[in-house]
Amino acid sequence: MPQATNYKPIISLISSIRLDGYRTTFRPNNECELYGIYIWSQHAAASIYPLLQNLEISLRNAVDREARVRFGDMWWETIHCTKDRDECHFYKKHRKAKECLTREWRKKRDETQARSLCSGATGPGMESRSYYCLNGF
């Protein structure tokens, strides 16, 4: 880090709560060292991110594979929960994801149907096709 640069304005933009851990752990001699340690920490974290991504994907796939063996392909629908399904965080998130995907699939289906109605709208039934085209369906 260039020693001649004034790092106080930069350091003042980073919360002291965030920097206190760096001060305690590394005991920098000045703001330049503190900022250098802060940047180094970001680079260190960034370098292990791909490993964490691979670990997460591998773990998720391993759980999914074993759950499919034990409970079937749609294991998330058949596993037992000690809580009522309406109170269980997992089931709430699952239900919300299903509803979101269903809405997206229906929207895509409707858009595809509307495009097919609008393309080459000639012959019998043209009036209904024109209605869909004019109203943005």
List the main descriptive attributes of the protein structure presented here.
elongated; 6 helices
Summarize this entry quickly.
The chain has 137 residues and is mostly helical. The protein has helices at residues 8-11, 16-26, 31-71, 75-78, 89-118, 126-134. The longest helix is centred in the middle third of the chain and has 41 residues, at 31-71.
Structure description:
With 137 residues, this protein is an all-alpha fold. The chain is 72% helix and 0% strand. The chain contains six helices and no strands. It has helices at residues 8-11, 16-26, 31-71, 75-78, 89-118, 126-134. Helix 5 crosses helix 6. The longest helix has 41 residues, at 31-71. The chain starts with 7 loop residues before the first helix and ends with a helix. The relative contact order is 0.05. Mean pLDDT is 83; it is low at 129-137.
